[in-house]
Amino acid sequence: MSVTDPVGFTAAGATAGLKPSGRPDLAVVHNTGPEDSAAAVFTGNRFPAAPVTVSRAHAADGHLRAVVLNSGGANACTGEQGLDDARAMAAATGAALGLPADAVAVCSTGLIGQLIDLRLVGPGIASAARALAADGGPAAAEAIMTTDTVPKQARAGRDGWSIGGMAKGAGMLAPGLATMLVVLTTDASVPPDALAAALQTACRVTFDRADSDGCMSTNDTVIALANGASGIVPDPGVFATALTEVCADLARQLIADAEGASHEIAITVVNAASEDEAVTAARAVARSNLFKCAVFGNDPNWGRVLSALGTTDVAFSPEDVDVSFNKITVCRGGAIGEDRALVDLSGRSVEVGVDLRAGSSTATVLTNDLTYDYVKENAEYST
């Protein structure tokens, strides 16, 4: 499963020399057609990196043919020179593939405040272009890793068409988007407006709800490419569901690989007055360091959940709230529920449920506990 699973896409990874480690650090994904629909979602950070600015402009008309991505340098907060360098990366990739520069999106990841060395990037792009192959997806996914410990790839298939994806991200994971570079590909025939709508929906309920450390990056980019090579025009709802499936898979992989995490936690709020209120409640819990300390110590401390909920303006009555850990209701009606000794948190995956009994809306936020030193009665923590 990779970005080259769908028909009509090639990819490659190369070593340009941007990483001191000498590991692969540059990737290219090429849509060979016949169609070139594209959609993108970018960081909400007010300091967008140069490649974000350039890619936003190139994707504005809903058409792209390729994406060039590098690790080993974010090209963020680098002024006019950074913009020129991002444009140069697009132009070099276009020249190597026989495309205009504005048919190429640019993505970068690494340290902020460092210029990209184009003397290394140019030959790296040429090397990647020569290596493009229909089985090159895994190499591309490896080349965009920074502190990631594993490459992240996903796939969803339907009758006659498929969606592939790759992602990077292991820190600064917070909504809007999260710290990530993501490329999604499909051989379904999807016009740009429908692709954009499906991508917005998918991001809203997946990447926007991945919240590890509350830190938003300058480089977050999710790009979707559709080439119609399958000859199939899918039902919009079916396509959106499949795209969300791939994004959800990648989001969970990002959370699982977040730096120092020992648990992956899904916080699901049900019976909220609205979806927005459900998200607000779940995010309050996800961002509670004391809650994360408890999970790290394998302690289903439901008081920490209630404390976090109590800081919000979400509609609920304290005497109506239930909290469960791994389906054991340890708090019922804002008071003592089942014996918390019944809860086993020794596994890596943890499910926390919150029932507000204030409506009918549901939302889930993904988080983790990072690395915390835990003292059961007097929590002390450090990242």
UniProtKB/TrEMBL annotation:
<comment type="pathway">
    <text>Amino-acid biosynthesis; L-arginine biosynthesis; L-ornithine and N-acetyl-L-glutamate from L-glutamate and N(2)-acetyl-L-ornithine (cyclic): step 1/1.</text>
</comment>
<feature type="binding site">
    <location>
        <position position="378"/>
    </location>
    <ligand>
        <name>substrate</name>
    </ligand>
</feature>
<keyword id="KW-0511">Multifunctional enzyme</keyword>
<feature type="site" description="Involved in the stabilization of negative charge on the oxyanion by the formation of the oxyanion hole">
    <location>
        <position position="109"/>
    </location>
</feature>
<feature type="binding site">
    <location>
        <position position="179"/>
    </location>
    <ligand>
        <name>substrate</name>
    </ligand>
</feature>
<keyword id="KW-0028">Amino-acid biosynthesis</keyword>
<keyword id="KW-0963">Cytoplasm</keyword>
<protein>
    <recommendedName>
        <fullName>Arginine biosynthesis bifunctional protein ArgJ</fullName>
        <ecNumber>2.3.1.35</ecNumber>
        <ecNumber>2.3.1.1</ecNumber>
    </recommendedName>
</protein>
<dbReference type="GO" id="GO:0006526">
    <property type="term" value="P:L-arginine biosynthetic process"/>
</dbReference>
<comment type="subunit">
    <text>Heterotetramer of two alpha and two beta chains.</text>
</comment>
<feature type="active site" description="Nucleophile">
    <location>
        <position position="179"/>
    </location>
</feature>
<dbReference type="GO" id="GO:0006592">
    <property type="term" value="P:ornithine biosynthetic process"/>
</dbReference>
<feature type="site" description="Involved in the stabilization of negative charge on the oxyanion by the formation of the oxyanion hole">
    <location>
        <position position="110"/>
    </location>
</feature>
<keyword id="KW-0068">Autocatalytic cleavage</keyword>
<feature type="binding site">
    <location>
        <position position="259"/>
    </location>
    <ligand>
        <name>substrate</name>
    </ligand>
</feature>
<dbReference type="Pfam" id="PF01960">
    <property type="entry name" value="ArgJ"/>
</dbReference>
<comment type="similarity">
    <text>Belongs to the ArgJ family.</text>
</comment>
<dbReference type="InterPro" id="IPR042195">
    <property type="entry name" value="ArgJ_beta_C"/>
</dbReference>
<comment type="pathway">
    <text>Amino-acid biosynthesis; L-arginine biosynthesis; N(2)-acetyl-L-ornithine from L-glutamate: step 1/4.</text>
</comment>
<dbReference type="GO" id="GO:0005737">
    <property type="term" value="C:cytoplasm"/>
</dbReference>
<feature type="site" description="Cleavage; by autolysis">
    <location>
        <begin position="178"/>
        <end position="179"/>
    </location>
</feature>
<dbReference type="InterPro" id="IPR002813">
    <property type="entry name" value="Arg_biosynth_ArgJ"/>
</dbReference>
<comment type="function">
    <text>Catalyzes two activities which are involved in the cyclic version of arginine biosynthesis: the synthesis of N-acetylglutamate from glutamate and acetyl-CoA as the acetyl donor, and of ornithine by transacetylation between N(2)-acetylornithine and glutamate.</text>
</comment>
<keyword id="KW-0012">Acyltransferase</keyword>
<dbReference type="GO" id="GO:0004042">
    <property type="term" value="F:L-glutamate N-acetyltransferase activity"/>
</dbReference>
<feature type="binding site">
    <location>
        <position position="383"/>
    </location>
    <ligand>
        <name>substrate</name>
    </ligand>
</feature>
<keyword id="KW-0808">Transferase</keyword>
<keyword id="KW-0055">Arginine biosynthesis</keyword>
<feature type="binding site">
    <location>
        <position position="168"/>
    </location>
    <ligand>
        <name>substrate</name>
    </ligand>
</feature>
<dbReference type="GO" id="GO:0004358">
    <property type="term" value="F:L-glutamate N-acetyltransferase activity, acting on acetyl-L-ornithine as donor"/>
</dbReference>
<dbReference type="InterPro" id="IPR016117">
    <property type="entry name" value="ArgJ-like_dom_sf"/>
</dbReference>
<feature type="binding site">
    <location>
        <position position="146"/>
    </location>
    <ligand>
        <name>substrate</name>
    </ligand>
</feature>
